[in-house]
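Minutes, structural biology subgroup

Action item carried over from last meeting: produce the structure token record for ABC transporter ATP-binding protein (Streptomyces yanii). EB confirmed the sequence was re-checked against the source entry. Recorded below for completeness.
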Amino acid sequence: MLLAEGLTKRYGRREALSGVDLNVPAGRVVGLVGPNGAGKSTLLNLACGLLEPTSGSLRVLGSRPAASAAHLARVGFVAQNTPVYPSFSVADHLRLGARLNPSWDQSLAERRITQVGLDPGQKAGRLSGGQRAQLALTIAAAKRPELLIFDEPAAALDPLARQGFLVSLLEFVAELGASAVLSSHLLGDIEQACDHLIVLCESRIQVAGEVRDLLAAHHRLVAPRGELDRLPAGVEVIRTEHHAQSSNAVVRTGLPPSEIPFRAEPVTLEELVLGYMSRANAPVAEVGAVAGEGVR
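Output recorded by EB:
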């Protein structure tokens, strides 16, 4: 789906992405997570061909982004704030989509508009945020793309509208047999919808992989305070928290829990993501201070 090698994007002196290497197989629903300013929108705009990289390379569905009209037709994109044309009616949007997209599926578009309760004659400028999001999603999906890309489309929606949007997203992915990338800072959305995770922070990929595999490879260790320096080699400390009598650490290791000298518990997706984001923002001197040679 996505293959990046040394992908770098600068805006003047500011580096939005720095040496990104990424290999995401097709057929995944990918959650792209990171704080504001991490480079998520830049990565997605590069994938859509709206930006050109400063250096390195990026291939989407095996080709350079926006390499041709045929390639553009294989990608559906919903930008931030789910932009629509305020003076156009819902039906106008469907007519425009049909004119611009050679593989447009009018029956799919009309069926989805009916399912989510949109009035074809309603001006888009009078729709609620949730209704605009559903309209933008329908237009992107009615292209029948192989890849759907969403740049925080549900961030401004209320919980009910956001839930409806995610349900529709997954239904489209299943119906089209498409891959998808969902950028969000709402970890609940990622946990509900995604089977592949990318954590982007400080312009770099901090961790990426199948959600199931990442959760299996990470543990929360609980140890008496000051004892975590006895971790065996091969245990990578991601984040440490100290309390009065004990210390907790999120670690990554291929070792079975029985070979780790402290109590090892499963981690949540939130703990995993926050661990890598915290490590990315920590001063260099603090990284690896706990487990010595056991830390990469």
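Discussion: The chain has two domains: 2-201, 212-294.
Next step: EB to file the record with the rest of the batch.
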